[in-house]
Amino acid sequence: MREAVRLGDSARGRTAPNPNVGCLIVKDGEIVGRGATGDGGRPHAEAVAIADAGDNARGATLYVTLEPCAHASERGPTCSTLIPAAGIARVVAAMRDPDPRTAGKGFAALRSAGVDVRTGVANRAARVSMAGYLSRIERGRPRITLKLALSIDGKIALPSGESKWITGEDARAHVHLERAHSDMILVGRGTYLADAPRLDVRLPGLEGHSPRRALLTRGEAVAGWETLSSPQDVYRLHDVNDLLVEGGSATATAFLAADLVDRILIYRAPILVGEGKSSLGYIGLDAIADAHGRWRIGSGAHLGIDRLEVYERDREGD
């Protein structure tokens, strides 16, 4: 199942509005089929893995990160129909699909067809991998990640506005990987005017995975960019699972003040700026006590000379 999660994670940022599912087929202790959701959401991971396995699928066990779909589509048969038709004997799934069109129905269809079904294996890892899809289904909006590149003392630029480059090449390469795993990337109009950012992916082999670009602005639209007039407009992004917010300070502040940020990536450089531009403005907190209990420390890593700090929003029910 861990390998199935890895396969699904490799497709993150390219499958919306569908989930980024991973699938493995195992027979006699050997992997005979692999699959991940295709670009744009089709083909589904199960269909890819079954095609890869061919005749070896008969009598095999299928490991999948999400309940196989059960709702009809013009784009292909349901996976809960395809799996028994291929002769799969057993399905091990990480989690139930929260989409009401499938929720529980996929497992029921498999069991009715005589397939042995086990659920809940590596559930947490699967939820992390598909956090964007789950957020859109459960909260009605994408998972929102805020990226900040800071000095030791929390500055994003000199008083003059100069900010290139606070972090080193390894940290910037990691940002490009995050972009490749996002469906949309957003900046404020001030950042757009000051930096004319390309917001594309410039990693070898991943250039074609550049996300859609969006501006947070109440001003005129810009060709090639989508527009959000306020952070609350994320609730109309029905075809975006993962949204990456890159800047600047006013935009970061607006999303945090609206309590719409689910994950913060801080790329901290070993430099001191002193007087300079702060990363955030007022986000609605009037007492230190109110700041506690909102964020938990996630994973971290050294990226060359810099340090990546990851923080997750601690919401009830997560």
From TrEMBL:
Membrane spanning residue stretches: none
Record-listed Zn(2+) binding positions: 44, 69, 79
Keywords, sorted A to Z: Hydrolase, Metal-binding, Multifunctional enzyme, NADP, Oxidoreductase, Riboflavin biosynthesis, Zinc
PROSITE patterns (alphabetical): CYT_DCMP_DEAMINASES_2 (PS51747)
Binding site for substrate: 163, 179, 202, 246
Active site (UniProt): 46
GO biological process, one term: riboflavin biosynthetic process
The protein's name: Riboflavin biosynthesis protein RibD
Phylogenetic placement of the source organism: Bacteria, Pseudomonadati, Pseudomonadota, Alphaproteobacteria, Sphingomonadales
